[in-house]
Amino acid sequence: MSYLYADPAEPPTPRVLALGDAAASVAFGARIAPEVRQKVQAFCAALAAAPIEGVEEWAPAFASVAVWFDPDRISFDALAPRLLALARAPASLALPGALFEIPFCAEGAFAPDLAEVARLNGLTPAAYLERLGRLTLEVYMLGFQPGFAYLGALPDSLSAPRLATPRTRVPAGSVAIADGMCAAYPYGSPGGWRLIGRTPAPLFDVSNERRPALLAPGDRVRWRSIARNEYDALAARWRAGGFDPAELRAPR
Fold first, then answer.
1. Of 10, 29, 102, 250, which one has the fewest beta carbons inside 10 Å?
2. pTM here?
């Protein structure tokens, strides 16, 4: 692994790390924090605005961006200084993404951990949901599953640690929180986050070739609590092919 930085005694950020022969990582820190996220998003915006010959794809993480390139068209040694220059540009290029208002139901078996999460924060379940509904959370990154969006940051007053023992099966659509983050599971899978509701919204659609994931890094999310009868009606309509992501988009 090779880094590019000014002072070898204490590597500052941003820095560029070679990942094999055809990829690089541009690191902006080692913490999950709003200011680091802003730098990550600004870099992605700068890379999109000023394409580099040979760069094929990039994907943001919490504190870094992976960049894939064609080594027959550009070498790591030629690419790294250009990535570093973009990474050092002002963060003003980081534009907010779309704002989504996503419905979810927090009744009964859909929210097995809601009462405990509320209790840990000194709240009733109704008060917890009311406060959650006031928040606008941002998509930091996608990972774990296709379309699994890590939303941050939850205030300490609404957060809770992961479960001591993960569930072997979390139903698709489950809205969950853990360690200051919020997410919804696009598919059923094991998981250790605390479940506080379930959304009927399709979070990943393989038939949508242009944008299969509902959410993208930089998008923002507001959760809208709904009753079970509205959940069932939306789920039935969207399963029948009537889902249009535009209906969840809110005005800026």
1. 10
2. 0.86
In this structure, the strands spanning 137-142 and 220-226 are: antiparallel
Contacting residues for 51 by C-beta, under 8 A, at least 6 apart: none
Summarised one tens digit per residue, pLDDT across range 138-177 is 999 999 999 999 999 899 999 999 999 999 999 999 999 9
Residue burial 193-220, b: 16+ Cβ < 10 Å; e: rest? bbbbbbbbbbbbeeeeeeeebbbebbbb
Q: Which domain holds residue 201?
A: 99-250
- On whether the CB atoms of residues 121 and 129 are closer than 8 A, the answer is no
Q: Do 112 and 199 have their domain in common?
A: yes
Q: For position 241, what pLDDT does the model report?
A: 84
- Comparing 99 with 31, which gets the higher pLDDT? 99
> First CA to last CA across the chain, in angstroms?
42
